[in-house]
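During the first year of the project, the team set up a workflow for recording each protein of interest as an amino acid sequence followed immediately by a discrete structure-token representation. This format lets reviewers and collaborators read both layers of information side by side without switching files. As required by the reporting guidelines, we include two representative entries from the current panel. The first entry is reproduced here exactly as it appears in our internal archive.
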Amino acid sequence: MKVYIDDNEYSASEGETIIQVADRNNIHIPRFCYHKHLSVVASCRMCLVEIDKAKQAQPACSTLVYEDMHVNTKSQKTKDAQKSTMEFLLINHPLDCPICDQAGECELQDVSLQHGESKSNYLQFKRVVVDEEISPLISTEMTRCIHCSRCVRFGEEVAHEKELGLLHRGENMEIRSAIINGVNSELSGNMIDLCPVGALNNKPYSYKARTWDLKQHIGISPHDCIGSNIFYHTYNNKIVRAIPRDNPDINQTWIADRDRFGFEGIYSDDRCKRIMKRVNGILEDFDEDMLIDEINNSIRDHIKNNSNEDVGCFISGQTSSEEMFLIKKLFKNYEIENLDHRTNEIEFEYDHNFPIMPYLGCNLNELSDYDNIFLFGVNIKSEYPVLSIRFNEAVKSGTKIYSFHFSPYQEVFPLEKSYCISPKEIINKLKTGINGVDRKQKNLLIVGPSISYLPYQTLFHSAIGEFSKEIKGNVGYLTDYCNSTSGWLLGNVPNREIGGMNSNKKGLNVTQMLKNKLGMLIFYNLEPEHDFANSSEVIKALQTSNCNIFFTSYLTPIIEKYADYIIPITTFAETSGSYINIEGKLQSFNEIVKPDKGILEGWRVLSELCKLNNYDINNITEVRNKIREILTNTKFDSSAMTIGDTKSIAEDLSFSKYTLRHIYSTDQIVRRSQPLNLTKQSKNKKILISTDLMDYTDNSKSLPINENGKRYKINDFEVNKSLPPRSVIYSSCFNNKFVEGKSSDIKIDK
């Protein structure tokens, strides 16, 4: 249909509103309560416009267009209506613009400049609203609030956690936390962006800089495999703020709190800024000019005196694609095959049957196309908050979601069925089938990272594969690090070449490297204390190794104790690179801030080492283009793995210990973020035990554990009735200590 706005003709679709047509054609209509991803309430009345057949000005956000409609956004009638609204909104708004963090980005301020009056007809005292402490991430100045209700609607409609609500009526109306615990959603920071007036502010950023002093940089989230698009704002060569960057195909207009506040960890006190070498048992500063030759000669000498099979390399799944490519090239020239990025795993029988790289099975915006989605070992709300928005949309479109997990949790989107059962019971359930699900429907099975932590994950892959064939469903994966996809595609696993194809040359996986007492160990962007399935095994390997080389951004006690070489490398913010997300999209980023003196760009160090080993690379763009070419020629596989016969879980399952993958302990940077460490999620460090284990406790105070021959007691625990029998659940918070593996079979000593 044809619509006329300011005497210009535009096309419109049935069911569209005036403001939607105007926005699409870059016609500005002021608004406060309207947001394209939220429901329409038409409460602020700022978008009033003149319509040809209406006696009074009408709200553009809620008025549907019709054929030959004539709208005037610049008429005197429109201006008078908007001025009246503006005056009304400013009755109680404080005149504190000079100290407001929203200054320079304030929608109220901008609109007031255009439509405000120099004086008001209302002379009564302005009301004052007492602020409440709602979150360690959000500060409040609720006297500024104009009751647009964006924050309330976001909680109800997008985050699906009703944490803020409207209290009282009329001019006494207030927006308050709906529950005593305040705002704890993993997406809560988006309320800051939605607030048009500075009532909700970024607490860690408060009073650090003025908006006009900031420099904006394009970035990609380094904290999960979704690859949310972000703008980073810097001041005096320091990141002070992160906000979402619109990308309808990935994160829309939202980011998780982990993406918004995680960068704070870059400025931790334990940042590594010195090149060091151990001399006579003591770490001493080492000359940067001699570093490349020193590292190369150390590796070459060790291979010469021992063998290339005596060297092992562990890489973080958070490492950029360019660095992973160069690592593979470098170690190929050293003829070293012991290379692996799957440090959180302990069982690898599935290796040769795994696809070229992990893939979700579809694009993010295609989730709504499926009739049924099955989740295995993943808590979307906690682990992938931005993805929970997509699942909410899918449920609204009719998709049924089934969840299989080992620990109790509650998703923010409705589940058709939630199974909190033991691993053995999950496998049995898949064998018997699920009522109402058949091959005629469009089905998607998503395997989460918790499955890979199990000591018998191949059996799970096999059971999931058989079930997928039965219902003719696609199989997809969610990875634990932001760039694990590149780890597979670029050969950072044993027995794989660049491009993901199987290699004829045999290498050792993570578990084998740790148990084989190798003479030289190389760690890239990893911390032994936190980034491995079994920290005690790593420490044993470090103790028996002759030479330990660490490329790291942070110093930890274990690194300082066992490292022979320490090379300080940049974080994502201090260099250029790329990540491949779980859709298979390569997303690049550039340097945001300059690294401190003494910190080296990882890819440059690797490229210099490559030059000494017959692989010449000129710049990072050249590497990126090679990766892009590989990705272009890669066929994404969403079919089930064909594994064949596998070992089975014993009928009488032993007691099991599982570790929940905590949202704020996923990587080196985010677990050092002070704002995130203050949240409710980070404070939840209790151990959960199933009800039946109370029979084994010592007067309900301690539970005696026997784990691979090591005995210890659990003292600080809670009994959870929802847990499957014989289960102990840990949380992988930063300060938690593990005796053995993160997930393992245990015995209970009476």
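The second entry, processed by the same pipeline in the following quarter, appears below.
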Amino acid sequence: MILLKKYQDEAVNDLSEKLYKLLKKPNARHNLIFKAPTGAGKTIMMAAFLNRICEELPERYELEKRKAAFIWIAPNKLYIQSYNALKGYFAEMRSIKPIFFEDVYDNELQPNEVLFVNWESINKEKNTMIRENETNKNLYSFINKAKLNDTEIIVIIDEEHMFANTKTAKRANEVLQKIYPKIEIRVSATPTTNSDYRTLVERQDVIAEEMIKEGIILNPALDTIVQQGRSLEEILLDQALAKREELRQAYESLGVKINPLLLIQLPNDTSDNNTADDEKYIDVVLQNLEVKYNITVNNNKLAVWLSGRKDNVEDIEKPDNMVEVLLFKQAIALGWDCPRAGVLLIFRELKSTTFTIQTVGRILRMPEQRHYPNPLLNQGYVFTNLSKNQIEIVKDDMSYITMNKARRIENYIPVQLNSTYINTRIVRNRLGAQFRKALYEIAELNWELKREMGSDHFFETNKQLLKKRFINTDINTIEIVIPENVLLTGEEQTKLVTETARFAKTPSELARLFKDFCRALTAPYAAVDSTPVLEGGMKYFFEDYFGIIEYDAIKIMLYDQNQPIFIELIEKAKERYQEMQEQKANNATKDVQNYQWEVPIERIYNELYEEKEAVQRHALEPFYEYNRASKPEVKFAEFLEENKEYLHWWYKNGEKAKEHFAVPYIDYLGKQSLFYVDFVILSKTNVTCLFDTKTAGSDPANAHLKHNALVDFITVRNAKGLKTIGGILIEKSPNNISTWWYCNNKIANTKDTAGWDMFKPAE
């Protein structure tokens, strides 16, 4: 008999109710989302759920079919773990039968069977499990026979988020289309699929049952640490080991026989193959563990779980196992259960800007499924060298740390705008020698820098111009900043990390970080060939314009407050480089694409955007505002929020990407271009408003051309009965009251606003 916690029983009831509703629906491939935080007991809940369905289904006479077989798909070896768990749960029951592929009897899935398969065995046409053969013994034939026998097929997709990337998602959809199940139950702590049928287990309910820890503390008390010539990595290792020992003593004082485990994750955790950086970290960690702490493989205090190497990993999950430290990459991120793990040390490359819930979740479980009198033992502890400007605590998931992400509001009402995207052929798929020339042009144009060949007196003048842009060039005060002593509670609102500790980096560490920094900025160009070009270009830039060389230049660029400014410079330089390549290719071929646009379901914002908590009616939440947005853009956004009762939603559009709305126009040079309006608005009167905010007389060359193209676009929509207004929008402030004016007709400029209409959100 399976004994469930209160929240587990409620989840099983809810899953069952929603499944029966979906079974009544016509057609197939209905999605049922099951979201439960790591440590909630997802497998036991699914076991109880499957058992209930198999027992109740024959008695559900309102259903056309009252038999079901299940296919449980999981990545890597997780399917074996899940099989063993369900096999244990149902050892004394006959209601349900877990099986592997080779256990299928008579080439047919039988009712109440759960077939466990791993994704890798079915994701390619040549794989044995799905390949056609003379004996007709393959997955699809098993399924088709069951369907002919009036057996519903229900697929369980375990760790559903693992199938989210574009390539995998496409292949997964192809496989599921061939299976064509009645229902797809998508299970994850961080599901990526949307559905009206969702069962959610709240983290606080799991905490209340003392199944998992109350929270995670990131880099506890690092501000009290004196560096004393040590690298940040050495300091973090020392602190992580000290925290492990502190936990050990706390357990001992309570008479609890638990030996807490420290997990150390190496960088580049997307690959099983060790890089040179990995080997460096391995050497540093192993040497420090042996010399300073007498923790080695030979004395059974150290376990290693790497590709081609497994040391002391047997029985490591047992509470009193001798192993104190486990060194790993991604191998334990999925499905591994070791509740005695209480401390996690993550070494990250600069480009790796996320913590995964699968990794951090390894230290969330409580060893005895109970909280202890000593609150120290009811928290997990994470140490990391990830810099502070890369970290944000995300809504509804305390153990998932990522870049700024916003999602479309639940009550979103669609607008369906015809949008255009111009895909310009990239002449070369890598940055070339001309990139440095493009970089210098942009720097001189936008930053007003000057360069005199054969002289260096202009260096100081250029440095002063950097200071005017709030770029810190004082290398003696620049240090890498990481978050310190931050409690991740999983509260509803997004919380930015503000507590920080500062640590210097060695030259070799800086070189590695700078390479990763440049590699991450090469897109859409090939990273392998383009990274050295970008590295060299930026180094020459500092030497030629400021007389600053090598590691001093790198420190300035990597300083967390300076990074966004240099990122913006590089992005503009790449755009200029692309223009130069197009000119060189003599009007490169352009692919014009027309498509139906909606506000994106999800949008990622970089470091140049800041969250505005007071905004309530933006179509994506939370709202991130560009920190160099024009005054008209900022003021109009404030105006919209002041009038939010008249709006369904408003959206701040982006630029130069297919996910953003654009209207085609011919610019003053006669070149086909795109006009990305600033704001898309849907009023409560169901009027679509398309506005681009400007000051009177700004952008004299193109503003009227953009407006007139938008007027033509709006005219077409209104002719179809789609009430739409918009155009260039100018602020007027009579008696210090902000009003906004636009013109329904074509214009010759934006200075003469006589006859323009005032935008009234209520109308």
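For the second entry, the following points were noted during internal review. The longest strand covers residues 724-732. The two ends are 63 Å apart (CA to CA). Both points are flagged for discussion at the upcoming steering committee meeting.
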